[in-house]
Structure formats: C-alpha cells, structure tokens
What we know:
The complex is a heterodimer. By secondary structure, chain A is mostly helical. The two termini of chain A are about 20 Å apart. Helix content of chain A is about 80%, strand content about 0%. Chain A has one domain. Chain B is mainly alpha-helical. Chain B has one domain. Chain B has 4 helices and no strands. Chains A and B meet through helix 3 and helix 4 of A and helix 1 of B.
Amino acid sequence: MIDALAYTVVALAGAGVIWGIVTAIANKPPGKAQLLYAAGLEAATVVQSIIAAAKIIGGFRPVELATTIGYLIGIVILIPIAWLWANVERNRFSGIVLAVAALAVLAMTLRLLVLWTPAG
Amino acid sequence: MNGVPAQQTSSAGHRTNSGAGRVLVAVYGIFALAATARASVQLITRFEEAPFAYLLSAVAGLIYIVATITLARGTRASRRLALIAIIIELVGVVTVGTLSVVDPEAFPRATVWSVYGIGYGFVPLLLPILGLAWLWHTRPQAP
C-alpha cells in the first residue's frame, strides 16, 4: 500500500459516491463521463492492489495476511460487477448502484490502510 | 429514460430486481461477498479459536448469497426463497446482536452480526428490514 495512492482512491471513490447520488436525484441514468469515471476508479483500485500484492510477494507481512489478501482481491471486483448491474436496467437507480460500489471501495481502502501494519 | 418501464408496473406487481430493487441487490451482493470472504478467512486460518462464531459467519454469508441471487432473479419462486432467507437473516442479526451485547463472552470473535452489525455501520440490521419492505412493496397483486 502507498498512502498517497490509497487516499487518492478514497477521494476518487468519494467523488464517485456523490456523482452517483447526484444523477439519481436528477433522475437520470449515468452518462458516458460517469461510466468512464467509474472505469478510472477501477483502474486506480487495480493499480493499488497490484502494488500491494508486489510488496507482499517482496516480503512484506501485514498482521492479518489472509484478510489483507481477501480485501486486495475483493476490492477490484466490486466496480466491474456494479457497472454491469447498473447497465442492465438504466435509470436513476443505476447511479445509486455505482455509488454503493464506490462507497464499498472507499470503506475497504480505509480498512486496508489499517490492515497494512507490519506483523511484529 | 426515467422511471420503471410501463410493462413492469402491471397488475402482477413489480419485480424484485427492478427499480430500487437493483440497489437492494447491489447492497446484498456486497454483504454476500464481505461475509463469505470474512468467514472463509476465519475458518481457514483460525477455526479453533472460536468455531461457533466463525461457523455463524459462514451461515450469514450463505444467507446473503441466497438473498442476493433470489432477489436478483425476481421470479415468483425466487421471491419465496428470498422471503425465507431474509426472515432468517432478521432473526439472526437480532439474536446474535442481542446475545453479543448481553453476553459478550459467547461471541469472543466478531461476526458480521455482532452488536447488530456495528462493524458495518448497522447496515446488517437495516438490510433485512428493507428487504422485507421491498418484498411487501413488490408483492404480486390479485388480478
């Protein structure tokens, strides 16, 4: 984990949550820009997981290794599934679906920052 | 572009996987993933520490998976399974939540339902209530 990247993911995800809520309030399905933004958030998340995996392979041992690995894998599958689910039926609720996934990415990244403590 | 298409608001009631139901399925899906992954890690790495709590985590994960799939399918048959799963979920979160407050010794290790899901912003307590409300809202209407 790189703190700066993690906080960037948190900020991107937070903006994604707000964007999803805004389009829902406006009663619109997510537009092309919003879907591209979700893809960007996913890319940042994937980069974060790859860097963290590389550090673990390189010898870093967080206290809860199995949990950390679970988070690193779980966090990258949320946005793609939400994306597909949001696009099957496109309406205001699609934005909320994307917002829910972004909120989960946000929460999981904050949790990863806590988990990323070296084992004694 | 907006709202639910007309053919889905017929007298047969709404489908559970349409409209706001899609958000409910998304939240259930996240909890299915979270609870199952958490239980897997616990069962694989330290089952002997708290077998009961960890098996309970696995049951919770299974219930979330069933609820996610049945709500996402949205057929009449799947509604029935969803109802059963969500009732078990509500009983589970209330029972485990209460026990973990009254007798913390019984739950030395946290589960998704401990203290009514405090570790997940109490969403585990809210979710079955919303699920039941949604099943009621989308119940099939008599023709």
